[in-house]
Amino acid sequence: MDRIIVTPRLVLTLLTKAERNSPELKWIHAIRSNEKATWWSIYGQSKSIEDTEKVLGGLLPNSEKTYRVNYTVHRILDSSSGHVESESQTAVLDGESTEFIGFISLVALDASSLALPEELTSPTSSAASTLTVEVGYMFLPSGWGQGFATESLNAVFDACVRAPFFWAPFSNLYVRAIVNEENPASVRVMEKTGMKKRGVYEWTGKAVYLAGRWQEHSCLYIFGRQLLQE
Q1: Which residue of 69, 95, 120, 147 lies most exposed, with the fewest beta carbons within 10 A?
Q2: Which residues pair with 201 in a beta bridge?
């Protein structure tokens, strides 16, 4: 996968580790500890750096080939960029002055992933050659409402297509997303990034703290897109 992706307004950097006191961990903790940014996160808001490290443990690549891809998202600063939320979130990347605003993850499904009925999964017939990954993302409020999520997700999806060798031995790559029905902003992002709505899943289970309240039931929109197909 590309180490750096540059779009007209953003620089995305591949995140493979986030060591204690590193800029990368500080960036991720800034977003994981932000109440608004984590409003729709099933992991909740981080109360400590240890909380953030625990979440990252399930996202960052490990010694096994688990097909985990993560990118930090930084907006390119110029004279019209306005207020910078925090100096600790600024960096010079690929020769550009930037501010950290978001995070994108693609993680292959495993035993802990939400099991969905067959009609909501990959339509590809050759399941043995298909890898399904789940996309997740979050942005700081300073990055909301400006199309940054759409721009960065499209860039990451394009990078996945450019790197078929990364997904070997799988020749088919399917990406899924799970969006709460009460989150219309993310629904719009899915539609703008070519994700197709596969259906609705009524989830019931152990209560999770989501969107400011404890929930034991949620109506989930399931989206999917075939990124690679032989």
Answers
A1: 95
A2: 220
26 Cβ neighbours under 8 A, 6+ residues apart: 88, 89
* 174 touches 195 (CB < 8 A): no
CA distances from 4 to 8, 120, 159, 163 (A): 13, 33, 10, 13
pLDDT in tens, 10-36: 999 999 999 999 999 999 999 999 999
Q: Rounded to the nearest 10 degrees, what angle do helices 184-192 and 148-162 cross at?
A: 40
> Is the peptide bond between 169 and the residue preceding it cis, with omega within 30 degrees of 0?
yes
Torsion of CA 31, 32, 33, 37, to 10 degrees: 60
Amino acid at 43: Y
Contact predicate 60/70, CB 8 Å = yes
**How many C-beta neighbours within 10 Å does residue 1 have?**
17
154 exposed, middle or buried (CB, 10 Å; 0-12, 13-18, 19+)? middle
Beta bridge partners of 14: 71
Please report, to the nearest 10 degrees, the dihedral formed by the alpha carbons of residues 83, 86, 89, 93 taken in order.
Answer: 40
Place of tokens 């088919």: 172
pLDDT, tens only, 59-102:
999 877 789 999 999 999 985 555 555 555 677 776 778 999 99
